[in-house]
Design a protein that fits this description.
Layout: E1 27-29, H1 40-49, H2 62-72, E2 79-82, H3 84-96, E3 103-106, H4 112-119, E4 124-127, E5 146-150, H5 162-171, E6 177-180, E7 201-206, E8 219-223, H6 225-236, H7 245-255, H8 258-281, E9 284-286, E10 293-298, H9 303-312, E11 315-319, E12 328-332, H10 336-351
Parallel strand pairs: 1-11, 3-4, 3-5, 5-6, 6-7
Antiparallel strand pairs: 2-8, 7-8, 9-10, 10-12, 11-12
Helix pairs in contact: 1-7, 2-7, 3-4, 3-6, 8-10
Length: 352
């Protein structure tokens, strides 16, 4: 660090992104990307938008908001598009949290929640998962803090039910509840309909996973219009043009191609269940994932050693050094061919 770097960030530990090595052609099962290419319809919309890149994009993303609201059955003024769902999550920490309105989230979850709290100077509490790596919704009842929950959770893939989410939201009427639904399209149950009933609920989603747009960076939040207006104030105080015109066009095109998205999600779920079955037959313990990844461990090889051995053989999975989960690896679900190669490779490793 330079001598000019602010001391207020001395203790900040940045989020660790999944590795992106370029030394060989890896099978990438470490960053929860879709194995499927972008829809042709989306590409067509983006090509048209290329003709207008000399102009700033619409800061209100009106066409995109209309398309998202139509998909979800909400009003356009109940939606805010952002540069990936990470941005809407950071906006929520900035808009609703402070030293009097602190944050709470699970101790094993998406790593950015802790980073967002720390970079914004927000006190926070981490609540342990159960022995089965589940979020116990009762831990969040009437907690009187702003709550951030990934549902399905990451890296476990385990979901809370809609009634459990509603109990959390209902019991904390004076605090914001943020439900991060990055992986909801692979078997979770969205709580978006609850925004009509509760004015303290913010639901976030992303185009990165189920819609093959990880590289384009598009996410959004859904909430009562008053909450969205709060988030707009943060957006217009940081980056009014946060969603570029090409990404917005891609998003609109993808949303006009619902059948492709559904087909891809169905294929990923099918591949997930195939992989889970094969891993269990090899002696792995695997959590009950509703996401586009599996969380698995084997009692004969450490999580780190399996990660290393797979990497040597050209397959990347995600290993987390945190003590509670260091025996596990998170495995993104890819194409069926990729999953077959993974299983065959693991068999070879276990037989050595």
């Amino acid at each position: 660090m330079s001598r000019f770097f602010s001391k207020k960030y001395d203790g900040l530990v940045p989020y660790t992104a999944g590795e992106q090595p370029k030394d060989c052609d890896y099978i990438k099962l470490n960053t929860n990307e879709s194995p499927f290419p972008l829809s042709e319809n989306a590409k067509r919309f983006a090509k048209e938008a290329l003709n207008k890149t000399n102009l700033y994009p619409d800061p209100d993303c009106r066409d995109l908001h209309k398309a998202i609201s139509n998909m979800l059955g909400v009003s356009p003024d109940e939606v805010l598009a952002t540069n990936g769902s990470d941005e809407i999550l950071n906006f929520a920490f900035m808009a609703f949290c402070d030293k009097e309105h602190t944050a709470v989230f699970p101790n094993i979850t998406y790593g950015f929640y802790k980073v967002f709290a720390e970079i914004n100077g927000i006190p926070y509490e981490e609540i342990p998962l159960t022995e089965n790596f589940e979020i116990d919704f009762r831990d969040y009842i009437s907690i009187n803090k702003n709550i951030f929950i990934a549902n399905p959770n990451a890296p476990t893939g385990i979901s809370l039910t809609l009634p459990q989410i509603e109990e959390i939201v209902k019991s904390n009427p004076d605090n914001i509840v943020v439900i991060d639904e990055a992986y909801v399209d692979f078997g979770g149950e969205s709580c978006v309909p609850l925004i009509k009933k509760y004015d303290n609920l913010l639901v976030t989603q992303t185009f990165s996973k189920s819609r093959s747009m990880a590289g384009a960076r598009l996410g959004f939040g859904v909430a009562a219009k008053e909450l969205i207006q709060d988030l707009y104030k943060i957006k217009y105080s940081t980056n009014p043009y946060n969603v570029n015109s090409i990404t917005a066009a891609l998003g609109i095109g993808v949303l006009k191609d619902v059948e492709t998205t559904k087909r891809n999600c169905d294929e990923i779920v099918k591949n997930r269940e195939y992989t889970k079955s094969k891993l269990e037959k090899l002696g792995f313990s695997v959590t009950n994932s509703s996401a586009n990844f599996l969380f698995a461990r084997h009692n004969k090889i450490s999580g780190f050693n399996l990660y290393e051995e797979l990497k040597k053989r050209g397959i990347l999975v995600r290993h987390f050094p945190k003590k509670e989960i260091c025996d596990f690896n998170r495995i993104t679900i890819g194409s069926i061919d990729e999953m077959r190669i993974l299983i065959d490779t693991i068999k070879d490793i276990l037989e050595v």
